[in-house]
Amino acid sequence: MKTEQHNNNKRLLSSLLRTAKPVAYFIFLLLTYALGYLSAPSARSSQPPQQQAPPFASSTPLNAVFSSSDFDSTSNSVIRVTVNSTELDSFRVTTRCADPISPELVRRTLVDRLFNGTSPFSNFPPPHAAPLLRRTKKIKGWGSNGAVFENLIRRVKPHVIVEVGTFLGASAIHMAELTQRLGLSTQILCIDDFRGWAGFIDRFSKIPMVNGDVLLYFQFLMNAVNFNKTGSILPVPFSSGSALIKLCEWGVYADLVEIDAGHDFFSAWSDITRGYQILRPGGIIFGHDYFTAADNRGVRRAVDLFAKVNGLKIKIDGQHWVLHST
């Protein structure tokens, strides 16, 4: 009897041990998971650092909020960024514009300040360049005869037009013809360093070069002479940044500003920002290449962002973007 009871106890103990092992293993796993969860960093500390605010001009509202789609039209994710004054300090446009001078004084002021009082058309062309220049009635340009020019000139009736990015002067000459046809006395200031861009000679091999100096500037002047537009067109042969700063400092404002220079985002952003500074109240700033793919649609991204931060509405006229000043 005792032997049978002893055997029963051994079987019961063996059964309990077999059952206890998986239970103990389960408890061990549960404790391990709990300890790991409690020791993990909090959700707040695991978040990535806040995105750095992008650089904007002085006109950017300090409480502006932007998304990544403002910079990349192909992006679907949204990153909210709040811009504060400290983050903007290093990127402000600090140039203070002078009071506007009379439009009638614009040409004389620039001839005096830029050319020591002598028109660049005086005694043109110089002997060393004359044999190399072409007299032509067909000037290479891009969108230079678009309907947008007549639409805006009829609307604004400008006294002063500033063109940023002139190349050989096709659009400037077209605007000069339009203003004369409409009976307007308009000065058209053509900002360009007249150096082209690296590699452009591959596409324009007929433009002569002397000692590494491409003669874009002289050919531009020759085109203005050929079309008899030397009285309404004046070159400003410097980089867009330095030229627009000086126009601002000298009080030279425009009723129309055309932006058609660099196609990358930063060049377009700089030209639009500084061009808008010299725009008279009620004036219009516009430009080409809104649909150009260069630099991941760099011009379009710059225009869209500038319009957003300044509360402006973009209008499209053919291949051109248009912004009306407030």
Q: What would your notes on this structure say?
A:
The protein has 326 residues and is of the alpha/beta class. The chain has three domains: 1-47; 49-92, no CATH class; 96-324, Rossmann fold. Helix content is 38%, strand content 14%. The chain is built from nine helices and eleven strands. Strand 3, helix 5 and strand 4 (187-191) form a beta-alpha-beta unit. The longest helix has 38 residues, at 2-39. InterPro entries: SAM-dependent_MTases_sf.
The CATH topology annotation of the largest domain reads as: Rossmann fold
Strand content: 5-15%
Q: Structural class of the secondary elements? A: alpha/beta
Number of domains: 3
The helix-strand sequence is: HEEHHHEHEEEHEHEHEHEE
For the biggest β-sheet, the strand order reads: 7-4-3-8-9-11-10
CATH superfamily of the largest domain: Vaccinia Virus protein VP39
Mean pLDDT: 80
| Contiguous runs where pLDDT drops below 50 for at least 5 residues | 40-83
> What does the largest sheet look like?
7 strands, mixed
Query: Count of DSSP E strands?
Result: 11
Radius of gyration: 34 Å
CATH class of the largest domain equals: Alpha Beta
Structure summary:
The protein has helices at residues 2-39, 85-88, 106-115, 147-156, 170-181, 216-226, 240-249, 265-277, 294-310, and strands at 65-66, 81-82, 160-164, 187-191, 209-210, 213-214, 233-236, 254-259, 279-287, 314-317, 320-324.
